[in-house]
Amino acid sequence: MSAPPSWSATPKNQTPRAQFRAIPVSLGSRNNMPLFIDDALHRSKKYFHAHLSELLLGEFAGLSLPLHPPTAAKAAADIDATREFIRQWEGRDDVEYAIRNWSPVGLGKTEVPVRLTLNTTEELVVFAQVEDEWSSLHERFSQLSGFTAEVVAKHVSLWRSLSNDDLSKAVLVVDWFLKHPNSGLLKRAVAVEGVHTKWLENHRVLIETLVADKRGEPGRADLGLGDAEARVRLRFHSVDAPAGLTDIEVPLSNLCELQEPQVILMVENLDSFLALPTWPGVTIAWGAGYRAVDIVRGPYFSNGRLLYWGDLDLDGFKILDGVRSHVPHTESVLMNSETVSRWRYLGVADREFKAESFDNLHDFESDALDLLITDGELRIEQERIRLDVAVEEIEKVIRG
Question: Among residues 129, 144, 163, which one ends one of the domains?
Answer without folding.
Answer: 129
